[in-house]
Write a structure and sequence with these properties.
It is a single chain. By secondary structure, the protein is mainly alpha-helical. It has a domain of about 100 residues. About 45% of the residues lie in helices and about 5% in strands. It is built from four helices and two strands; from the N terminus they run ααααββ. A two-stranded antiparallel sheet has the order 1-2. Helix 1 packs across helix 2. This is Integrase catalytic domain-containing protein.
Length: about 150
């Protein structure tokens, strides 16, 4: 399991670490973070998300731990409706971000014979004095990709 390969997992981990830091540093007696992890995770799962407006626990389980088993949940819509609303809000947020990204993106068409370079920052032996870009490569043919 590599959380760094999954942006959503990495973002949740970042939120949990931030909350853990606050809890660990707010107590006068130092409590190990392992003792606080369960409560911080529960707090995260029960806090409404800024985009969906629902707690993750409610969307996943369909109920909150503190709901009365007899009474109807008076805080949120029925879970199926809440999931649909959360999906719609997430898609709206995604579309707004896409519009913002597309406004800044400049599409460049490359033709055979053009020289191109690429950034070497993922190269394993990159050093401070290494060139930041590869040697130029000539484009031989143009492949049409339909996305």
């Amino acid at each position: 399991h590599h959380p760094q390969t999954n942006g959503k997992v990495e973002r949740v981990n970042q939120s949990l670490v931030t909350r853990l830091k606050c809890k660990v540093n707010s107590t006068s007696t130092k409590v190990p973070w392992t003792k606080l992890l369960e409560s911080v995770t529960n707090e995260y799962n029960l806090t409404p998300h800024s985009i969906t407006k629902y707690p993750p626990a409610y969307l996943l389980l369909g109920t909150l731990p503190y709901d009365s088993p007899i009474g109807q949940n008076s805080y949120y819509e029925p879970v199926n409706e809440a999931r649909n609303l959360a999906l719609q809000r997430t898609m709206d947020y995604h579309n707004k971000n896409k519009i913002r990204y597309d406004a800044r993106f400049v599409h460049k068409k490359f033709n055979p014979g053009d020289l191109v370079v690429y950034e070497e920052f993922h190269y394993p032996n990159t050093r401070k004095l290494s060139p930041p870009f590869s040697d130029p490569y000539e484009i031989i043919t143009y492949l049409y990709l339909s996305l």
